[in-house]
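LOG
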Amino acid sequence: EQCARTMGRLVKGGGAVTSDIVEREVKRALAWCDPRLEPSEARRVAATMLLREMAEQAPAVFNVHVKMFIDAIWFPLRDARPAIRESGVSALKAVLCLVEKRETRYRVQWYYKLFEQTMRGLNRDHRSGAMPGAEAIHGSLLALGELLSHTGEFLLARYKEVVETVLRFKDSKEKLIRRAVIVLLPRMAAFSP
């Protein structure tokens, strides 16, 4: 945590070398998110913390990496360890705040891709009919909370689907899933009173 914050402070200062540092560290962190390439859990947590700091402290340079981030963040969000999922959602929040502040023609496309992946983690597989694992459900519920908070009116047309999907998990036997649903209830109510 401290290393990521220190790196964030270093790049916030700006300068000629900042963009090179951000480029190198973001690419490394994105690679570390994939457990097939990086088996170390500590590196996956470090990667999500670093991505969060880069998005918050160097948004202009990080902005070019948003598409790659959206593809890579699902590994941490669906990780077996809750700490990695929670760290992943804090990185997602930072990137959604960045996207929310910047006018870009890709914004809706990125929101839609995130929403699609979130729903994939909450619904049965169309081919096999199998439900996703508890980790994928928990990570997707966490991501959905950030989508509700940071995508403006994007989810308004999908609100009924979101509410029905979330409420399906209110009686889950997994404590983390029930807790995520409880946290989402006031957010959903505030989103569309």
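LOG (cont.) second protein
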Amino acid sequence: RVNIARHRVTASSLYSLIPRQFTKLYCYNIHSPSNMNRLTCTIALLAAASSDALVTNQSKPFASGRRNFFGIVGGAAAAAVVTAAPGAANAAIPIKTGPSNPFNGDYDDPNHPGCLRQVKVVGAPIKADGSRPLYAIVEVTGYDGKEGETTCKDRPTRGDLWKVTGKTKGKEEAFLDFSSKGGPADVVGKWDGSGIVFPDGNKWTKLNYAPKNRRPEDMSTLSEGPL
């Protein structure tokens, strides 16, 4: 323990208090380190690796050496937050779901006037390490009308509905798998501010309300029970 009020301590002498060999041995022998262990070890090892960068001048007061030393350790800590604890960095990026996500809502499809087109954005399953993926799940439920018709005049039954899923990519793109409807498995839908634009030029225009007459009569919202 050093009384800095009574002693002049250089950065190098302060650094010498770090049990370097113990730190390396401890870090390299962790079999399944947690995020906190990885963060602690990364800071310590980066500080050890930076020791050669410390310029010691015995004629300078402790305050100068202390600034040099903690400047290096502070930089190492900042880098370690990203490299050793990615979950903490990812947690700072909110994943918008539900009404907060622009894709979420009901749409008009010009290729199927009056037919149901509902998009729901829900959170992706949490990964094994406890972190949440940087994307959200997209669920699209629709109805194309009776066979041979392109306009929906009657309300569908639950059995008439189809569903495709996908995931978001950033804030303005979603990858959708239409293979269950005989289409491509990686259709990219882009949000343009008022709707979703597809590669073929078709655009689903977002509605500011949810038309009940496009849903089955025994279902006021699509979240009520299984489809």
